[in-house]
Specification:
The protein is an alpha+beta fold. The protein has 4 helices and 8 strands; from the N terminus they run αββββαββααββ.
């Protein structure tokens, strides 16, 4: 099965911050130290990728250099919609992809990075599950 982020997922994730349900990102260091943080800039970048604008460059971000595995959790209690997106990241500190993510980043997050010192983080999604762990989609191979 291939990953294909649905139009419903795209709509909800792209509006998560304005709907007051920002995504939570989980990372781990190479020695398995976990970290979680809210990311108001999580967006659907393509049918198989999520992205976010990383303005802080702290905590979980520093772990991604050693361990590119990541999980993004979306949960909207009002609509009773929730998913976990597992994948691997690529970081873009310059270039066209960084510019594309910057352009799509929601204004409240850009306001917190007035000098645009952030980087783009692209997540190639390999698995989508429910919060209960049931696989919704998984990449082949």
């Amino acid at each position: 099965m291939a990953i294909e982020i649905t139009s419903e997922m795209k709509e909800l994730i792209d509006n998560a911050l304005s709907d007051k349900y920002p995504c939570i990102v989980g990372t781990a260091s190479s020695d398995a130290l976990p970290n979680v943080s809210y990311k108001g800039s999580v967006m659907v970048f393509s049918d198989t990728e999520l992205a976010f604008w990383e303005r802080a460059r702290k905590g979980g971000f520093s772990q991604l250099s050693d361990n590119p595995h990541i999980v993004v959790m979306y949960r909207n209690t009002e609509l009773r919609k929730s998913w976990r997106f597992y994948g691997n990241v690529t970081i873009y500190d310059s270039g066209e992809i960084r510019d594309q993510v910057l352009e799509k980043t929601v204004q409240p997050e850009l306001d917190r990075d007035p000098d645009r010192l952030g980087v783009a983080v692209i997540i190639k999604v390999t698995k989508i599950t429910t919060l209960g762990g049931e696989t919704v989609q998984e990449a082949s191979g």
